[in-house]
Structure formats: structure tokens, C-alpha cells
Amino acid sequence: MTSTDALRFGLVGTGPWARRTYGPALQTHEDVDLVGVWGRRPEAAAELAAARATTAYDDVDALFAACDAVAFAVPPDVQAPLAARAAAAGCHLLLDKPLATDPAAGRAVVDAAGAAGVASIVFCTLRHSPVSATWIAEQTAVDGWFTGRADWYGALYAPGDDAAVRATTPWRAERGALWDVGPHALSVLLPLLGDVTGVTARPGPGDTVHLLLRHTTGASSTATLSLTTPPAAGGVAVELRGAAGVVTMPMGGTAQESLAVAVDSLLESARTKVAHPCDVRFGLRLTEILAAAETFLASAGAEPRLGE
To answer: CA dist 185 to 59, 151, 152, 271, Å?
Structure first.
């Protein structure tokens, strides 16, 4: 697409992610016309719309009617029902991760998108970052991966952190690292090792969760997820081990750069009618796996006390 046939985009959400990442990326994309913003707080929508030289909508369905595509930067359980409405209105979907925390809600978005024939992307940052996406593509062409690990050690809610940060994203504080950074880990492991056929989970300190995954290829993997890591211990690492040796994923780029690639992918999918690997169905699969892990955590018996 060229700037002469730019897609009309709406933005749903007014929080930090909308202000700092989605708003700038959509406003500056040459093939996007950012036609409006809607938020649950009208005053915040008006402020963001003014900053991005667009229109604040009081009615979300009116925004959908004015758009060809909608980007979502709201909590997952707010996103899912709104995304289903947007799809029913004929809008292509640029969705944040996780798609939903309830598989049934995620499935409703899949059904709505399928019925309307709209394109969709679930924005998992590393799947769209040129550096990591290139590495993932290279490793999927290699046979014989035996095991892998994906570790997301975040310090967003580390002890002593600013309480104002917690207040801006209460759903993260409530649902923890499993749902916030879990989609990132899975979005890398699944294309490399195959779909997940089994998952177990155990809690660690703070909101830390340790996952053990079995994949369709026969490989296994682990994921350690945390938002309460001490700042000096934070970081992200992805590693594969197999017949080809040991490889680690390089990191690079910004969230805005990755989002611009995700927008390009959505435009291409809308034009060609070819589903993207990170479409809404992939987002649903991530939700199903994480929900299974959450159920395991809730139902697991007390750990045996060793040495007593």
C-alpha cells in the first residue's frame, strides 16, 4: 500500500502503552491514517487525540464505523469483547498480547474475525522485531532441537518500585508475569519447537512462575516468568540446544520499531487475505496454554518438604 490508499486506523486505549508506543507508531506510519481514539476515560481520550492530531470518540462503535482497522492497547479482558465488536463491524484487528485471559472470550474473537473475514495480528514484540524475528526464522529451518528455554526476568513490580507504575497497569499487578510476559515466551518457543501438548507450572518468589512444556516435536522447554525480579538480576534470554549445538537469541530494536513491522504485516494480510502466523488464532492458543498453566498452579498440591 502507498500513502494514497492508507488504511483508516482507530486506537482503543489511552494508557502508557497507547501514549508511548501505539499512538506514535500509528501516527507516523506512512500507510496509516489515524482517524480517532477511544478510551474508557473520555478526558484521557481527548488528551491523547489532541497529542496525535486526531479525533476523540465518545462512542466506540462510532469509531469502529469510521475505521478500516483498529489497534487495541487495553487490558486483555477489556480487549476481547471490544475486538469481537470491531471485527463484526468489518475492522481488521491489531491486538495486544494476551488476546484474553479466558479462552472462551478469545474464541469469540476468533469466531467474529472468521465470520467477518478480517485480518488480524496479535502483537508479540519479539515476533516482529527484525533482529529476533530473523533469528527465529533461521532456527525454525534447523532440525533436531532437543530442548529450549525462555526466561523473562522483569523488575516492573520489584520491591521499592514506584507505586504509580503499578497504578497505570492494574491488570498486570493482578494477573502477574504469567499473563504479561508469558505470551512473549510462548510466542518464541512455539514456532521453534512446535505446539504445546502439556504444561506444568510452579510458583517462585513474588509473582515468578516456572513452566515446563512438552512440544509436538518431542522437544521440551522451560520458561521462567517474573515481574518482581530484583533490578540487578533482570533480563531476557532465549536458548536452544540440539544436534546443531547451542544458540541464543539476539536482542535489539525498540517496541515502536516492532509495532511498525506488525502494522506492515497486518496491511499485507488485509491486502492478500493470507493469515499471518501471529493472527488471532495464534493469540487464542497462547491464551489456552497460559490458562492451563494457571489452572495447574491453582490445583497443584502442596510441595513436599524435603529434609524434615
So the answer is: 35, 7, 7, 29
Ranges of each domain in the chain: 3-124+256-279, 130-251
Residue with cell 491453582: 298
Class of domain 130-251: alpha beta
Q: Are 63 and 6 in contact (CB under 8 A)?
A: no
Summarised one tens digit per residue, pLDDT across range 196-248 is 999 999 999 999 999 999 999 999 999 999 999 999 999 999 999 999 999 99
**Where does 3-124+256-279 sit in CATH, by number?**
3.40.50.720
Contact by Cβ (8 Å): 100, 107? no
Q: What is the pTM for the complete model shown? A: 0.93
pLDDT in tens, 117-164: 999 999 999 999 999 999 999 999 999 999 999 999 998 776 554 444
